[in-house]
Amino acid sequence: MLTQSFHRLTFPAPICWLALGLGLAISTIGAASRSEAAEIERRPFGKTRDGAPVDEYILRSGSQEVRILTLGATLRAWTAPDKSGKMADVLLGFDDVAGYESADNQYFGCTVGRVCNRIGGARFDLEGKHYQLINNDGPNQLHGGNGRALCRVIWQAAEQASIPDIAAVKFSYTSPAGEEGYPGELKASVTYALAADGKLTLTYSAITDAATPVNLTNHAYFNLAGAGAPTILDHELKLMADQYTPVDSTLIPTGELAAVAGTALDFNAATAIGAWIDQVSGPPTIGYDHNYALRATDGKVRQVAVVRHPGTGRVLEVHTDQPGLQFYSGNFLKDQPGKGGKTYAHRSAFCLEAQHFPNSVNEPRFPSIILRPGETYTQTTIYWLK
Ligand code: GAL
Q: Which domain holds residue 55?
């Protein structure tokens, strides 16, 4: 069942660079041989319950393939070889739009905003005005609200001209002032760029016409043994952080930074995710669900985590310029149906969500997430699958 638009053009590198300079969109940028070519394919994926069409973009480079939906700019699938060349899709997701619109969708792979993670009391004050948002997680707001949160809207896609072996698509969305209660019209974008070496770079950008909080992330759920494998407790995690943000009973940070040394949160040496998870499985969390304060960066992208699955040899590196990384061990997965008839069990996936700290909008001790007119929000995160 192919293909609404499937382009396989090849251009010599100088033409690619020229196209890049002119801002032209070229669907497929290829090197000479097929195996090295990067390709972009667009397929209709279905319709939302409101009748809006959803497209899927398939990016291929080398032996890597990722699939991204215009609904929520959602990373739906990532197929890559393991050490013995066996292919598997390492991301949780659904086969159809109805799955993404169902209660089983726990933000699988989507772009989360306008403010990801939690806002205490679902409210904030900004420039002398009080903003009351929808509370969708006890008293708090989680992941940008409900029906018009960024993960639930249709983004406009534009294939990007690129250099050989990188397939890139930019997803853009304009969020009107007042949407989900946030001030200012926000023009947001995220570009996914897949390279043949397994590097998937997510580059975010946003501007506004009035001051607003902005904190974007991607909520991909990984199982490096392949989505549907029963657990991630055997995956080994190295997470380069000395501190985390302790939380209250509703998972809102207290504002302090606490040391991970000597606790079950210390992954500075690679350790199986399951090694100490029982120690963080009482209230307020039921497993790992913690925001790590990453070591300082002067805005540069640096490596912050490495996850290795011993069975397949697959390795995922995470690089980001963000100050925080939410490590979530899939605690709310509940034996639910997923892609290809698979079942997603409790703790059968992990998320490493690069972002600013939770509740930053109400916590002056945390780096600010306020974007003002004339400024540009940027964020770069790389998931590198080896
Ligand atoms: C994570 C969050 C968890 C949970 C999950 C979605 O980002 O930290 O507490 O809400 O999203 O189910």
A: 2-385
Number of domains in the chain: 1
Amino acid symbol at 162:
S
- Whether residue 222 has pLDDT greater than 80: yes
Active site residue 101: no
Stated length of the chain: 386
* For the CA of 251, the nearest atom of ligand 1: 9
**Closest C-alpha among 352, 303, 282 to residue 90:** 352
CA-closest residue to ligand 1 atom 1: 328
pLDDT single digits (tens) 269-306: 999 999 999 999 989 999 999 999 999 878 899 999 99
H or E element at residue 20: helix 13-22
Separation of 328 CA from ligand 1 center, angstroms?
Answer: 7
Q: What is the CATH number of the domain that holds 132?
A: 2.70.98.10
Atom of ligand 1 nearest to the CA of 289: 8
pTM of the entire predicted model: 0.91
Which residues neighbour 363 within 8 Å (Cβ) at sequence distance 6 or greater?
A: 253, 255, 357
